[in-house]
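Hi R.,

Here's the chain you asked about this morning:
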Amino acid sequence: MESPEAEILRILDRVLAVVRAAPQDLSWQARYSDEQELIDDLSDYAGRLRLHDLSRLDELRFEFAPTGSLCEIAASSGWLDLYTVLGNRFDELYAQLRKPADGA
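And here is the predicted structure, written out as tokens:
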């Protein structure tokens, strides 16, 4: 069974593949000024996860939120259905990583 961190990394790799495969419409969000900035940020998230560094996980959660930049980019760039599946899975994995150690 894959760890939540590893699965989030797979999600990020999938998003990066989509973003790199075709031009992205960034006009409906304000965070990224161009595609390279988006790719660099997603790559940073992925690189940190590869090192088991969860310091930006809360920020990444916001990016995957229904009002976050990734949602806006996916909706305007034609991959909203894929984003929805990946975002929902990300939410489940995030909850697993952030649950209290005592299970409360």
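One quick note: DSSP finds five helices and no strands in the chain.

Cheers,
M.
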